[in-house]
Specification:
This protein has helices at 88-93, 128-140, 160-167, 176-179, 184-189, 203-215, 257-263, 300-305, 336-341; strands at residues 13-25, 28-34, 47-54, 57-64, 74-80, 100-105, 119-124, 147-151, 171-175, 196-200, 223-226, 238-242, 248-251, 281-292, 308-310, 315-323. With 349 residues, it is of the alpha/beta class. The radius of gyration is 20 Å and the shape is globular. Strand 1 and strand 2 (28-34) form a beta hairpin.
């Protein structure tokens, strides 16, 4: 049984003990945590924030609660090591049993529909972590479904033994090194109308699925996904000038623009920290370089215009002047043709 995080528990900090550290795959570490007390039932797809220390400063990073937990006081998370990331994964990989860390409960932003009869699951790489508890919940509910798990190399597939025990032939493993890129169009074309798809993985894979989904005119409400804000690009430092104050800020390679703005005292709206909600979108008044869009919020028109970016995950290769006080938040309007035409260039990592 996994917890249901109520709002009264949201943002409460808990002191936890690391109970175990193990290898889930070549680049994924499984970490067990013992909480100070029993918790309410976790929803499938739920998360916790973990306090990490990066260059002497404390930050919060979000990790999915992986299934296979026996008690309400013990939870499992899994962390992919990213050498050129923001530093959170390297801290997590440094943990040892009996270390103490703080965690913070989070509202579930990736709810599962347990009532739908037709279900499919898709995970790419580390995106398997929230999908596991969803698979467990669907199995308990007696649903018939398959979990399609795409990885770059076989040694990067995590929890395969546990998932095989849970799903049997319902686990479909796709290894890019052996069979090529995941066949997005073929996969979506194989789905019956009315199917609900829950997916998590690299941005390119999820965007390609979204465009193929729209091309089939499937209901958008039947496609549920979560974004970790990963990109194939290496993160480098960049500079921005805040128009309202004239201040020039250096955004380090291991921090986001949102992190830097908040640490510098600017008030910026934000919520998901994963490039999904669009609240942290900033306006670019000038740009000397290019934008690495790592969000799932902006459409192709806004991306091509290079006039805005989601500051929690996206980055700039170069320098820019930004405005943080003139943003109209909301979902952009984009034609179906533009969505489909932008589609199919992506790499799984």
């Amino acid at each position: 049984m996994l917890p249901d995080l109520s709002r009264r528990d949201h943002n409460e900090e808990l002191d936890c003990i690391v109970s175990r550290v193990g290898s889930a795959a070549a680049d994924i570490r499984s970490i067990g945590l013992i909480l100070p007390r029993d918790l309410p039932r976790f929803e499938p797809g739920g998360h916790v924030d973990v306090q990490v220390k990066i260059n002497g400063k404390l930050h919060w990073r979000s990790y999915s609660i992986v299934g296979f937990s026996e008690t309400l006081r013990a939870i499992n998370i899994a962390v992919k090591r990213i050498e050129n990331g923001r530093g959170g994964s390297l801290f997590m990989w440094s943990l040892s049993p009996n270390d103490r860390i703080k965690v913070r409960l989070k509202q579930n932003s990736f709810p599962v529909n347990l009532q739908a009869d037709r279900q499919e699951l898709l995970a790419g790489g580390i995106g398997i972590t929230p999908i596991i508890s969803i698979a467990q919940a669907l199995k308990r509910a007696g649903k018939s479904f398959r979990l399609h798990y795409s990885v770059a190399r076989r040694r990067q597939a995590a929890f395969v033994e546990e998932l095989t025990g849970l799903l049997g032939d319902g686990l479909v493993l796709h290894v890019t090194e052996e069979t090529g890129l995941f066949p997005v169009d073929q996969f979506v074309a194989s789905l019956e109308p009315g199917t609900y798809l829950h997916m998590c993985g690299p941005l390119g894979l999820m965007n390609a699925i979204k465009y193929a989904w729209q091309a089939r005119s499937f209901p958008s409400s039947h496609l549920r996904f979560e974004n970790f804000g990963y990109s194939n690009s290496v993160s480098s430092e960049f500079r921005v000038r805040v128009a309202s104050t004239g201040a020039e800020l250096l955004v380090p390679a291991n921090a986001s623009l949102l992190d830097t703005l908040l640490e510098s005292g600017y008030e910026v709206m934000y919520e998901c920290m994963k490039g999904e909600c669009g609240l942290c979108k900033v306006e670019l008044l000038s740009l000397d370089g290019s934008i690495d869009h790592r969000d799932m919020f902006l459409g192709e028109v806004e991306r091509r215009d290079n006039r805005s970016m989601c500051s929690c995950v996206s980055r700039i290769a170069g320098n820019a002047e930004i405005s943080i006080d003139k943003i109209m938040h909301g979902r952009p309007s984009i034609s179906e043709a533009e969505k489909i035409a932008s589609a199919r260039s992506w790499r799984l990592f």
